[in-house]
Amino acid sequence: MDKALYIAMTGARASLQAQGTVSHNLANADTAGFKAVLANTEAFPVRGAGYPSRVAALHVDQGFNSSVGAQRVTGNPLDVSLHADRWLAVQAPGGGEAYTRAGNLSLTPNGQLVTAGGHPVLDQDGNPIALPPHQALEIGQDGTVSIIPLGEGADTMAVLGRLKVVEARPEQLQRGLDGLMRNIAPQQPLQQAPGTVLTTGVIEESNVDAAGALVQMIQIQRQFEMQVKVIKNGDENARSANTMLRLGG
């Protein structure tokens, strides 16, 4: 098969993968704390004997957009917006520690503090946080969790623990298939961030630019159609060439 078909085929495959990435971003345009996935295409020279004239297209994952999303005030004491480069530690589905910026927290019927995705929130010692029955709850800007016990007065407010909020730069984290971030260097654990780490009663929204993503989706679709057309034309040219060779023979 002509090398143009291979090149166009790899380009079409990369376009489909890029379209999947943009679709994923659009699907999470309303997900609190979501960070847009970044993807790109790079040239991949095909190695082998002879002159290196074939260069395929390769879809590459470039991490995520680390910019802080828009802030939406809710007034809910369980909603928290993390400051820049601050990540909330949660228990990953398979065990271990993972990180998120989704601050729309909730309490299960048994008092466990979880994210909107159902992941248990961890305290500064790495243990899931569970709260006893209470009539009021407050999360401080340093991550401390305080409650007023059921049937008690405001003067009985007690600190039960502190959310584990770590400080991490984007290059220190990698997104998993479950949407949670993980430390790329587990041998160097991320440390508790000092001082003020969050704002209560506010949610950080997704940083996906929905309008831009829609335009990108259209561009990728047109690019894919062009690559398919190249494949079709290349195949027709190859068939014509084979026919001419047979007639000439």
For the structure shown, list the relevant keywords.
3-stranded antiparallel beta sheet; 249 residues; alpha+beta; 2 helices; 2 domains; 29% strand
Describe this structure in words.
There is one protein chain. It is built from 2 helices and 16 strands. By secondary structure, it is of the alpha+beta class. It folds into 2 domains: 3-66 and 208-248, no CATH class; 71-204, no CATH class. The strands form 7 sheets. The protein has a 3-stranded antiparallel beta sheet, with no helix packed on it. A 3-stranded antiparallel beta sheet has the order 9-10-11, with no helix packed on it. It is elongated and about 100 Å long.
Number of separate strands = 16
- Average pLDDT number: 88
Largest sheet: 3 strands, antiparallel
Q: Decide which structural class fits the backbone.
A: alpha+beta
Shape: elongated
Summed up, what is this model?
Its main location: other. The chain has helices spanning 3-27, 210-248, and strands at 37-45, 55-64, 71-73, 80-82, 86-91, 97-100, 106-107, 113-114, 134-139, 144-149, 158-162, 165-167, 173-175, 181-183, 198-200, 202-204.
